[in-house]
Amino acid sequence: MFKIGLQTAQTSLTRTPAVLSSSARGIANIPAHEYHIRFDQQSGRKRPAQDVLDRFKRLNNGMWIHAHAGKNKLRYMKDDKWQKTSLYYETCTKEQCQMLDKLVTPFWLRPKHYPNDPYQAYNVRHGIDSPRVDDKGRFVRERRKVLLDDSTSSRYFNDC
Amino acid sequence: MFSRRLIIRAAQFSTSQSKKTEKLWENPWKHALHQQEQPRTSAKVLEVPIDWSYVERLMPIEIIPDVPKHETYPTPSGWTPPTEAAKTHSYYVRRRRDHMLPLYLERKRDLLNEKTLDFDYVELVVLRNVDGNIFDCENELRQFVEAQLDHPIATHVDELKGRIKIKGAPRKIIEQFLYSKGF
Amino acid sequence: MSQALRSAKERALQIVEQASKIRIQDARDNLGARTSGRQVRKANNQMGHTQGALERAAKPPLGWIWGDFFRPWQRMFPGEKHFNADINVRREYIPLSLIELTRLIDLGWIDPSKPIDISTLCRTQKFQINPNIRQYGFDLTEEGADSFPYAIDIEVQYATQSAIAAVEKAGGRIRTSYYDVNALEAAIDPKKWFEKGNVVPQRKAPPKTLIGYYMDAKNRGYLADESDIENNRINLANIRGYKLPDHEMVTEPLKTVDQVFHGIPAGSVISLADKKLYSPTNEIHREYYSKQVADKQYS
Question: Which residues form the Large ribosomal subunit protein uL15/eL18 domain (chain C) (predicted)?
């Protein structure tokens, strides 16, 4: 029987205050099978899955990357080529990216700009044929350009 | 003596006596604040004359500013205003209120891809604000773009709305067309 | 009275007191709400027999893969602290490219004869800065640096060397300065700040990790020495091989270290309706707002 991750509100009238405080469902206290929290008990808002935030990174163009499974295991036994390739990051498939987008809150789906970001070069993708905009007309993989038409922005930006 | 006491009593009952007969619900704030002692603060201020233009220039711009006059066009960032040549055609494409071309991108759902069982999406470019003979505009646009791209494009004309939807052409090429016509 | 000897009535009262208040919308009937749980019987869980059985069966949660119920796909990979662990420490900046700045000046949104700072850029309403999600201001990037034409007096929060070079080659003056959260909130929306009646704040000193950046003349930091900045300006021109104009664009004197707005002293209150500025008369307040040193070491 699979439990659906919908949390029902538990009123404090059914519990005493002391019990409530010790079983407060903080980040570390959530059972592993209830990781997709659509409605938080405290504020009623969506919560990002902590597992996803620990293991994956979302680039501005919508791609999620993660480390190789087992990269920290038995390194002493592995050959040189594996030593190098185990430290690479892997990209996710379309379905995996869509699923990871559902598991986190809209804050994590925002494009973020940091100066001297080591991942800056990977925040753009080139040569993709699918539409540049989403249903609302916002750019999906590119950066928002202020008052620039495509002729100007294609000369200076290398986004698409 | 008796009369003096009466006078004192009368003085205590000042003209605000008439306001005290005001009911609670007619002025609830006054009733609430009257009971609470006003907090004492040492924050007293004095007016200082300053140049008010410093404050004025912090206020947000509510109306799109007019474009300042430049000596040569295009401007350093590559912007051109509409030219006189634009008035010679049988149609006219008006600029947006922020002086940019009226080109928008839209996403439309296409057919279901049988291999991946996922919907394909297609990007459309929408040209709005077209007045006059919109069919002429569409013809010339199609010829220009197909010459650039070497493959046919699909267009949809909505005469009433003055809109042309183009499928298969990047927005950059349509901008080139509009600039070449002077819009 | 000790905790244990409270009567049941008192304990019940305490629970009720600590419970959240019921509002009228909680008591209303929510039409169309699912009031009974979906009946998921064991029999309906036999997957793949019929389409109807599939539809009625409980669906697995996101990420579930065959194997351990407690190990969904997203837990099968090792953690990486570099990814998201420092999200609450990272400082985000809004990218502003030189070509966008040129376009804004061309179209009349920004006046190059006046100083350009974060308030000037935010009053165009083309940018959204939210201090609550750790956004600290603008980062001037170098798209469009090759042919930047205007001599401007600009103050941003971060700038790349190419952007600095482009601005100085055109004859402009660029400084990077830090706005702490309170000052940033005032700077990005001065109208809202003044309408609330808030006091014009003082800019506090940058935190420990950023003081190095703003004291470095290479970054044209506002805490750096003016002579160092001048030397760096000449050096950068030599390194990059462009001719430096004789004098740089100076529209108004630079802001002091604690100033948020040009021409408006800290500690004052502005009344937009009366078009007046009020300064505090209390000696303590005047002393607090006049000293040029932040009273808190870090912000």
Answer: 96-174
